[in-house]
Amino acid sequence: MSALEKAFTSKPGKAIAAKAGLKDPPRLRRGRTWPEGAIVLAEIGDGSLARRTLTLLGRSVESPVVDDGGEPTPGYGARIGALVVDVTGLTTIPQLEELRAVLRPAVKGIERAGRIVIVAHPSAGDWEQRSVARALDGINRTIGKELRGGATTTLLHVAQEATPGDLVSTLGFVLQGRSAFVDGQAWTVAAAEQPAETLQERPLEDRVVVVTGAARGIGAAIARTLARDGARIVAVDIPPAGEALAQVANEVGGTALQLDITAADAGAAIAAHVARSGRPLYAVVHNAGITRDKMLANTDASRWASVLDVNLAAQMRINEVLLDPATEGGLADGGRLVGIASTSGLAGNKGQTNYAASKAGVAGLVEAMAPDLAERSVTVNAVAPGFIETEMTGRIPFVQREIFRRSNSLSQGGRPEDVAETIGYLLDPRSQGVTGQVIRVCGQNLVGA
Amino acid sequence: MSHNAVVIGGNRIPFAKAGGPYAEASNHDLLTAALDGLVARFGLAGTRVGEVAGGAVLKHPKDFNLTREVVLSSALSPATPACDLQQACGTGLETTIYIANKIALGQIDVGISAGVDSASDAPITVSDGLKRALLRANRARSAAERAKALAGIRPRHLAPQAPGVAEPRTGLSMGEHQALTTERWGIGRTEQDELAAASHHHLAAAWDDGFFDDLVTPYLGVAKDAILRPDTSVEKLAKLKPAFGGPQGTMTAGNSTALSDGAATALLASEEWARENGMPVLARFVDAEVAAVDHPGGDDLLLGPVAATGRLLARQGLTPNDFALIEIHEAFASTVLATLKAWEDEDYCRGLGLDGAIGTLDRARLNVAGSSLAAGHPFAATGARIFPTLAKLLHERGPGSKGLISMCAAGGQGVVAILEAV
Question: Disulfide engineering: B20 pairs with which of A52, A151, B16, B357, CB 3.0-4.6 Å?
Fold first, then answer.
């Protein structure tokens, strides 16, 4: 810790910083925890999907307070834990006023680390309907920036044909603490053939999941979180990282596979390792990645090639092998693939052309693969971490690091487990309708989409 | 009653020169790291294994239960029993034979053999004189008696005693013994340096191929064998001064093993257990033999394995040509060369009670992935290094491929074992 950082984190330093407007960031709610206060359900139009999904989740709901324009603005007595607004029946511009009327009391009365969730249908229909759908996006992003105390907002585009069974894992994830660092985001939930089943404590029980780059940081957190959810972890990392990798594998009761993912036979080596276990391969989390940062003016061919190979090309090659039905130990039908994109890739980041190329490439890859693998019921998604507190980001100079940390709606860096929880949600067997999505785990980072 | 004992795999930490990167690590630390890497590779965390057999040649008195204590520090189930064995440099092979025998007899389904040594952390003890005085003082019943006992301590008693490197019965160090053997068998300098260079080149090539990716787990930031010199050559080795055998000696630091730190483990099981638990099956343990020579009576100290090999091959009806691969532990380059000459020597072999010469080895089959000259030789670890290495090499060559391991050990002993790929 530098002298400057020590001074900043000391008691007097904190007092001065607070006066300057740099308050301690809010504490986020994490894990499989529900909001403390009531879950309020508002329905605009005649949609009932959110209500039925909350019933499936076993959550009781309360009626919303509606701002009728009178003075003073009506409020909630006790703080509410969450507001879920079902706008699946919202089609016109005047109806947006109904949304405002339920949002206004809620944003005033929401608890710390509470949740606003807007459940909508994907953009479709006439000009007005599509315009209204897009308006929801603007509302969602703005609420995210206005909410305080670690509360977050999410917009879910749920397909017309989707059932509560399709939405249950998503709504459960968003309302629970697992989504702590996911804020101001929107993604799509499609209809899928699956039973209407409530959240499971260990949704990945006995399922084999390969995690690359598992020796440390976000990868180790992914291994731990997925193991908590019941997965049998195959922890992969390069041979020189073997000591830390072994510790992670032993901690989660999995196996360690020392492997350079850029090797030509990496996919075959993973398949052979899985095949021996006699269990089908359920999921691969392509977490391994490297940075070789330089301004483009100083980026040579080798910096370019190594980053693109490790972060993008390697996972494509491995996927090809594991998706070949002839590969023993390959990915089973109904399986899951997850890539790691980055806000750097989505928004661009100075000094990271190679990295941004590779990470935006991952987003493109999952969007391309998802429809092609739909008939095998394999879902393909990516998460895009923003500033996450790891050993790697800990090496960024203090002032720069503090700026990165605070440059999002939650005024703090995320934790590796925040990324891991989002991946756990994508791997949930009940997330069958979530595919081709890129979910940012960035606390609504101020830069980018 | 009789089961196929098979090798599932192994794990070791990279070996390093004594006083190097592992200088502050104890036998306990080194072996725990090697064992935890094995547990991770095969997903054994929390598993109760039938038995772990390990050992060290240089051992602190406090480590009387070393292997069991290592098990308790590891990710294995604490209900896993363990024992310590010791047969000098043959320890790591003897622990493997012990585990294989128990599996073959059906006493355990799965077991781990291991060996470790830290020449950095060698036990320093007190002199016999000091020890006697202290024990007397401890037994004393009065202050006066105690004072009298302690008064018996002389300055010369206070010097710490490093572990002996000399053979107790001859007073000669191992290198000095081997120098006699080198001379007697007429082993030249160049052939020793050639063998040493080949060991380094073979080991380096194996590392480059990723051969050790599933046999070694890094430790304390060391990811590769630290003694290995990939760029060494016969020319470079030829420049070294003799270390043993006087000014005209042919044995140098380059063609003798370095004092080393390291630990190695091997996972063995009955073939049924391995298959039921989704484990790889590399090779089957076939048979083993131990022998000893009368080195106080003038025999070559490190040629004990010749008699063991002869008897084992005779029992199995095999000749050197029947083996796809042969591993002869490189205590010194000249040990390997003298061993091979002895195999071919009709009179010498008959003198050991064999029916005739053992035969000639095709040198292309010898130590193909390098051996102790390049990897280093943490005494008790070497057998547990070679065993899974050979099993993997044989497995790559296909079912039925046979391999022989020959290890010399202090006290004029030799330990030899046969593996066959499954």
Answer: B16
